[in-house]
Hints:
Layout: H1 3-13, H2 15-22, H3 28-54, H4 56-59, H5 65-76, H6 80-109, H7 114-141, H8 146-167
Helix pairs in contact: 1-7, 3-6, 5-6, 5-8, 6-7
Amino acid sequence: MLAMPWIATGSFVYQSFISSSKEWGPYVIAQSFMAYSILSVITLFISGFLIDKFSSRKLLIYMNIPLLFGTVVLYYFDASLSSFVFFGLVGVTNGLANVLGSSTWAEIYGVKYIGSIKALTTALMVFSTAFGTALFGFLIDIGFSIEDIAVVSGTYIFGSIILLYLVKNKLNPHYL
Length: 176
């Protein structure tokens, strides 16, 4: 759940670095935020329905797949259109993360301690956004290209998906 905040925030803060690296025009990323916003809102609506139908625990594994595809787009493509695709995929993951972030904890742990759980996860999310900004800046300072940063981000996402897949049966309340 922490991949999206640090990757999205790093991309937002260092958009001028991304834009100049990809040789996109000065307004391409700003225009791409429309794709991010629209797909985020659409995904918010759809994800609520999907959670009611399948459960948060089952959907959690798939949450970061659009973000993983976004890092692949950022790595392989330089055309201005790829900015719209990248930020659109970040928006899809954002929409999923916003709904899954609350419902998953309630499904796994119940609602008795939901306030404490939400406080902890929100603090971790805020830390993740700060971490993403610092990590992107550090990687840029030591000479990483945006493609290299996309590989680092994609590797983290892929690893988190694999780990979630390995523990998916343990996300069952009966196990706890």
